[in-house]
Each structure stands twice: as structure tokens, then as C-alpha cells.
Design brief:
5 helices, 31% strand
């Protein structure tokens, strides 16, 4: 596995602005967002209670998820009324154009101090990158498992999400091989690849400038494994909708 190219705490926002992507270590996440390791440690247990994603068009049974929406405005974080997740076909040729209603994130999880710290911290990153304004945040808790042999974190392939900032947190990785993150310039030849493995490492993406994907996972041994991530998308002006 290629190690993530972590960027120093005082440089990751500059690299995000310059290159459109940055990979941040767990210790930098804690410092930048003011969230202690023990607070982050209270989150992963909620990934053990994710319903199956019933919208997969490839017929797979490998993805489990919950989804909720929030608005960050300055120091205020408000949960929005529960809504369907929607993407245009231009950004998601496989699952775009349909309203996908998932079960919401557990209220006990979203009430934790770590949750507020992560979302408001990312809103600050988005404001530094794009200008201060309210941010409309969609939060997805994903588990990809290998009970059927192969799990596909991004069955739609390399893509953009139609937002301003994408944040992918590694939550847990157990008993798998594969799952390589790949980031490419949307309008150029350059790219990089690496494998996220440390809990609460973070991949930041300027969605206007780069496309991304994660390669399929397989079980490392006889027992199925899984890959848990928290994906947060931040968009100016409002949530995506049909």
C-alpha cells in the first residue's frame, strides 16, 4: 500500500488552494478542528448500525449507509429537515437523476461534540477556500463490506460530486485489501494514488478541480472485512435537488 502524502498542519489549506487536494493526518485533524482523540473515538461504534443501501444498480449487497443534512453558518450548526440525496446524471451516471432516501444518522451521534467540531471545522476550510458563507452539508456514513467477495466504494467510477468541497474521513479499515484512493486533475494529466488506513485521516478535495475514486476491496483472509468512511460534501447556495 502506498502511504498517504500527509500535508503539515500549517500547509494543508494552502495545498488545497494550490492543487485542489490535500491529505491530512489524524493528529492534524485533531489540532485543526479542535477535536480530541478521545472525542473522535466515540464515533466509530455508530457504523455498526447502518442499513443496507437498496439503490445499488449493479445488484450488489456490499454497501451500507446513513445520510443527514446540516447547515453551517459561522459558528452555528443546524440540522436540516431530513431529505433525499440527489445528484444529476452529469456527476453520477450510475445513480444520478433519482431521489435516494436513506435512513438518517443516529441522533446520539450527531449530538456529540466531535460531530460539531468536524462539521464546523470543515465549513471553515470551505470558507477559506471559496469565501465566507453558509455551507450546506450532506453527511454520509458508509460501510463497504466483503461478505459477497468484492465491495465497491465508488461503483460509479471516477467522478465529481457537484459540490464545492468533499471531505473523506477514514473511520475504520479491517480485514481487507484494496481500497486505494485515486485523485486526478479534472482538466489535466496529473494524479496521485494512496491508501488511507489510519482512523480519522482525511482527504480534502476541491470538487471543481479534481475527480476521485476508490478501488474495490476484497477480503484479506477467510473472514469478511469492511471499510468504514465518513463522507461530507459542502455546497454553497443550497442542497442539490431535482
Amino acid at each position: 500500500m502506498l502511504a498517504p502524502p500527509y500535508v503539515a498542519a500549517d500547509r494543508f489549506e494552502g495545498q488545497l488552494a494550490a492543487l485542489g487536494h490535500a491529505v491530512v493526518s489524524p493528529s492534524t485533524v485533531q489540532r485543526a478542528f479542535g477535536v480530541a482523540a478521545v472525542e473522535l473515538g466515540s464515533l466509530p461504534s455508530y457504523w455498526n448500525d447502518l442499513p443496507a443501501d437498496t439503490y445499488l444498480k449493479d445488484g450488489g449487497r456490499y454497501r451500507f449507509r446513513r445520510h443527514s443534512c446540516f447547515v453551517a453558518d459561522g459558528d452555528e450548526l443546524t440540522q436540516a429537515p431530513h431529505r433525499a440525496h440527489w445528484q444529476p446524471l452529469d456527476y453520477n451516471a450510475l445513480h444520478g437523476g433519482i431521489e435516494r432516501m436513506f435512513e438518517p444518522l443516529a441522533p446520539a451521534m450527531t449530538a456529540l461534540p466531535a460531530w460539531r467540531g468536524l462539521l464546523l471545522g470543515l465549513a471553515g476550510v470551505a470558507s477559506a477556500l471559496k469565501g465566507a458563507q453558509p455551507w450546506f452539508i450532506e453527511a454520509h456514513a458508509f460501510r463497504i463490506d466483503t461478505a459477497s467477495g468484492i465491495g465497491r466504494p465508488t461503483p460509479e467510477g471516477a467522478h465529481r460530486d457537484g459540490v464545492d468541497l468533499v471531505a473523506v474521513f477514514m473511520v475504520d479499515r479491517h480485514g481487507i485489501k484494496g481500497g486505494e484512493s485515486r485523485v486526478f486533475e479534472a482538466q489535466g494529466p496529473n494524479g496521485l494514488r494512496f491508501t488511507m488506513s489510519e482512523p480519522w485521516s482525511l482527504l480534502l478535495l476541491d470538487d471543481e478541480r479534481v475527480i476521485h475514486e476508490t478501488t474495490p476491496i476484497q477480503p484479506e483472509g477467510a473472514v469478511p472485512g469492511h471499510r468504514d468512511t465518513l463522507v461530507l460534501t459542502l455546497r454553497a447556495g443550497g442542497f442539490q435537488g431535482p
